[in-house]
Amino acid sequence: MNNFPLFFIHIPKTAGSSFRVAAEQYFGSEATYFDYGNGSKETHPDILKFEYESKDRYLAAKSIKKNAKFLSGHVIYPKYAPFFPAKSVVTFVRDPAQQVRSHYEHFSRLHGYNGSFEDFIKENRFANMQSKALNGIWTDAIGFIGITERYNESIALFNKYYGTDIKVLDINKNTAKASGTYTFTERETSLIKKMNAKDYALYDYALIRFELHKELLEKELPLVRFGQMNILPKDKGKQLNIWACCYEQEEALEADIIVDGQVVEHVKLSDYRALASERNIHREGYIGKSYKYPDTFREGQAVKVVEKQTQIVIFEDVVS
Q1: Where would I find the beta strands (DSSP E) of 269-310?
Q2: Which CATH number fits the domain that encloses residue 250?
Q3: Where on the phi/psi map is residue 261: left (φ > 0), alpha (ψ -120 to 50), or beta?
Q4: Where are the transmembrane segments (predicted)?
Q5: Span 215-224, mean pLDDT?
Q6: Per-residue pLDDT tens for 70-105?
Q7: Domain end among 172, 198, 218
Q8: Which of 86, 197, 299, 313 has the fewest CB atoms found within 10 Å of its own CB?
Q9: What is the pTM of this model?
């Protein structure tokens, strides 16, 4: 599949400026579109014309898909979601406390914010900014999630996966800051964790995923994406409902269902999931599997689903 154009969700203060400038240098200004709002000089003329003047996002996206290889903006995923396959969606995430403090410093310097840091933390509009930006897409379906604290590694991984040669740049930093990281009082840390619980969950997940994707690419194994889908509370521990796919292959993934270490069934993840189709995940939505535990499964037994090619555990449960 063609990876381009890429849709870069530029979350504020996550090293996104360095990445987007490096991407523009690589792809060329003619093939790089920006959407930083109606009042921004950086926003592409076609986006200004169609998105902000004509109020016709479809035509804006049509121009992007025809002419661009890279779209970047302080926008949330749903804005352009219908026009991009999930593999083409990319972003960076950052330790939430560092992101919050950096955003506060930026807002104070450039946007006239007069409140205290504690005031800033308590404002809902500044809370969970990273997870808000990605709302609407299954986290593991996102094509690439870079880690700000591991920026050089992230660029190397990005280039390996997408076959690009984007350079490492280091721009738009707060030069008044003495060290590389901010420090916090216990009260500040507690408040940040309370107000940004979803961002902490996202960041922890992204770190685990980063290591997994790095390992798979180094071993030249398929980059498997997977996750759980909703089941009713009464069905938990009694059945599974999962999705999994690999963007680099058209065939459905296969997996073993293992109970207490013994393979009990082979399954193919090829059931239709409307949500996966709507969100352009892969295979037009045919990436799911539902499985009701048979009566032979006993309470307390451990259930695992292991993808065959990589031997990755893509689901774990306990029979209840």
Answers
A1: 271-272, 286-292, 302-307
A2: 2.60.40
A3: left
A4: none
A5: 96
A6: 999 999 999 999 999 999 999 999 999 999 999 999
A7: 218
A8: 299
A9: 0.93
What does the pLDDT look like over 242-267, one tens digit per residue? 999 999 999 999 999 999 999 999 99
DSSP 265-278: EEEE--EE-HHHHH
Measured CA angle at 126 (ends 77, 137), to 5 deg: 20
Percentage of the chain beyond pLDDT 70 is: 97
DSSP category for residue 168: P
CA proximity to 98, closest of 169, 176, 4, 199: 199
Task: Please tell me the total count of domains within the chain.
Answer: 2
For the four alpha carbons of 309, 310, 315 and 319, in that order, the dihedral sign comes to: positive
The token pair at 103 is 């955003």
- The model's pLDDT over 136-146, given as tens digits with 9 standing for 90+, comes to 999 999 999 99
Residues 6+ apart with CB under 8 A from 224: 216, 244, 245, 246, 253, 307, 309, 310, 312, 314
Which residues are paired to 55 by β-bridges? none
Mean pLDDT of the chain: 95
Q: Cα–Cα distance between 297 and 318 in angstroms, integer?
A: 10
Give buried/exposed letters for 243-257 (b at 16+ CB in 10 A, else e). Answer: bbbbbeeeebbebbb
CATH code, domain with 178:
3.40.50.300
Residue 264 in domain: yes
Cα within 13 Å of Cα(194), Cβ side: 10
Report helix, strand or coil for 299: coil
The residue with greater pLDDT, 188 or 170, is 188
| H-type alpha helices, the chain | 16-27, 45-47, 57-67, 77-80, 96-110, 117-122, 129-133, 151-162, 186-195, 197-218, 274-278
Neighbours of 141 (CB within 10 A): 22
